[in-house]
Every structure is written in structure tokens, then in C-alpha cells.
Amino acid sequence: MVKFARHAVVFSFIALLPMASVMAANQSNKHSSKKHAAHGKTHVASQKKIIIHTASGKLVKRTVMLHGKRKVITERIAAVREMPEKPSIGDSVGLKYTQDPLELKSNVAYVVDQDSSKVLFEKNSDVSLPIASITKLMTSLVVVEAHQDMEELIEVTNDDIDKEKNTSSRLKIGAKLSRSDMLHIALMSSENRAASALGRNYPGGLSAFVTAMNAKAKQLGMSDTHYVDSSGLSSQNRASARDLVKLVNAAYQHPVIRQYSTDSKYVVSPGGKLLEYGTSNKLVINPAWEIGLQKTGYISEAGRCLVMQAIIEGRNIVMVFLDSKGKYSRLADADRMKKWLETFKPHV
């Protein structure tokens, strides 16, 4: 087992904004401009281009000959900026200062041999943090174990609109899908309205569903876990990495959860045109991986999250990565962990 303790360090950051630079194209065009006609179309001859770089983007000015007349065309190209992610709850309590030999981008990492329960790697595994759409794994567990009619049609209503984060959805109000299809796209593509509709259509409604989620967590011994919704959009949905291994192990017992969470594409018909959904985890289509169950999640308070069951070196492994920074960092952390397990083969 590898275990790392948290320590706090205070850093000061000075943001330096790049000064606007101006680049002029000095190439002179000594050839006369001509209007060329071919197949009834007029060709535009470009004479001169000036590119001005500003803080807000590029301002491109081109002098062209159009219909025998000189014209100046101005086009603004907005700067593409990668906005820094907001500090997560994990960052605010100092988890980002925890070091590990793999230089993981995740504030939390927990890797366990599924068969022996032996801990192979541990980093801040006992801290209860927001888990975002990892919540949907518990949602699926409650739905499946309730033994409701999976072919029953469920309708998306105004109650399923996200008022927490104002996220969008491809499922329009009035869309109808079977409970099975709702579960499929909630697990595979993290469809929030589908997860909300599943909770609402539980006996007793959403409040009863959330109660069932928390009761199941208690039954599984997830002592650091609490749920308030079925989608994970609320930052009050929290769990520790240790608890999430217990959740993965329980969900893994259901073939339908394994299948739906690891599908790469799925088409649904909610009324009107067909909708094709894709996986939220590109590792499931990577031939180097053999994944039996997975779920991703993201809200700003939680960072990028990932839980997986995978076979590595012939061993059933459960991985948990919470509060990772960068769009692809959780997948990169999983790759680093896989290579580490393959190279060092820590003992069971």
C-alpha cells in the first residue's frame, strides 16, 4: 500500500497579462488586380493582409479587389482562452498540496484489489468530498433493486430542469423514454434529466428516492456518504473514495449496470428525431483497457471525478479518482495508475 499525508503550503500567484502585439504583413503586391470570370463566378484577388493581435483576439484586415474595386474587409477572430477551473472543495481544504510519486492530477486516489480488498494505492481516501455525477451509480443501484417495470415510459417534465447549475440537456420537456433507456443514458452519458426523471418516478417521488439512496449507502457501510438528489448536480452529494469502492462493488453485481455504464454509443427515440448518445469516458473504447464498470462526474465543487472497475494484469481492480484538474486529467491519471500496476505489480 502506498499512502500519502496532506500538508499545507501557501503560494502567491501573480497573473501576467500578455501585452497586445501588432504584426503587419509587409509583403507588397506589385501585380495589378484583375477580375476573373469562370463559369459565371467572380474571383476575389487578395492584395494585402494585416493581422493585429489584441487581448480580445485577432483583428484581420484584408484589402481585396472585388468587381474591379478595392475593398477593405475587417474580420475579428475571438481569442480562444482556456478559463481556469474554479477552486474545488478539495483545493479549499488543502488537498492540492498532497504529493505522490505518480504526480497524479487528482486530489484523491484510491486503488483496491477487488477480490482481496487489498489497498494498492491511497491518497486522501478518507476525505468526504462532492462526487458530482458519480451519484448516478447509486441512482442506478436503487432503480435496479426496486424492481420497477423497466419498459414503463417516463416523461421529462419541468421538474427535471436543472436549476442548480443551469446545465442543458438533449431531452426536451415532454420527451418520453422507457425506464431502461433513461437508465442507459444516465449511466453512459451522464444525462441529468434522465437521472432526475428516474428519481421522480420512484414510489413516493424524488424525496423517497433520495431517502432510499441514503438508506442503501448506510446498508453498504458508506459512513462518509450523503445524497440530496439523483443526478449529482448538488455539491451536497458527498462521499469518500473508500465509500465509493463499496458502491462500485455493489453496483458491479448487476449486469445491467455493467453493460449500460460501459457502452460506447446508444440511440434513443424520445419522440421526434432519434438521438445518439456517446460515452462520457473514452477509455471504454480504448483497446488497451478492459473495463467492467465506470462512471464519470464533474461540477466545479467536485472537480473531475472517475470510478472504474477494470482488469489489469489479470487482476480485478477498482479505481477511484476524485477532484482532478483538467478535462482529460482523470483519464491520464487512470493510465498512469495502470502502467504503475503493470510495472511494479504490488502484492495482493
What CATH architecture of the largest domain do you see?
Answer: 3-Layer(aba) Sandwich
State the distance separating the first and last CA atoms: 10 Å
The helix/strand order is EEEEEEEHEEEHEEHHHEHHEEEEEH
Report the biggest beta sheet as strand number plus sense, adding barrel if it closes. Answer: 6 strands, mixed
Cα Rg: 26 Å
Q: How many β-strands, per DSSP?
A: 18
- Quaternary organisation: single chain
Low-confidence parts lasting 5 or more residues at pLDDT below 50? 5-46
- The global form is globular
In brief:
The protein has 348 residues and is of the alpha+beta class.
Task: Write structural notes for this entry.
This protein is an alpha+beta fold and 348 residues long. The chain has two domains: 46-81; 89-344, Beta-lactamase, CATH 3.40.710. It is built from eight helices and 18 strands. It has helices spanning 89-92, 135-145, 179-188, 192-200, 205-219, 241-251, 255-262, 329-344, and strands spanning 3-4, 22-24, 37-38, 41-42, 45-54, 57-66, 69-78, 106-113, 119-123, 129-130, 153-155, 176-178, 238-239, 265-268, 275-278, 291-299, 303-312, 315-324. Strand 16 (291-299) and strand 17 form a beta hairpin. The chain is globular and about 80 Å long.
Topology overview:
Blueprint: E1 3-4, E2 22-24, E3 37-38, E4 41-42, E5 45-54, E6 57-66, E7 69-78, H1 89-92, E8 106-113, E9 119-123, E10 129-130, H2 135-145, E11 153-155, E12 176-178, H3 179-188, H4 192-200, H5 205-219, E13 238-239, H6 241-251, H7 255-262, E14 265-268, E15 275-278, E16 291-299, E17 303-312, E18 315-324, H8 329-344
Parallel strand pairs: 1-9
Antiparallel strand pairs: 2-5, 3-4, 5-6, 6-7, 8-9, 8-18, 10-13, 11-12, 14-15, 16-17, 17-18
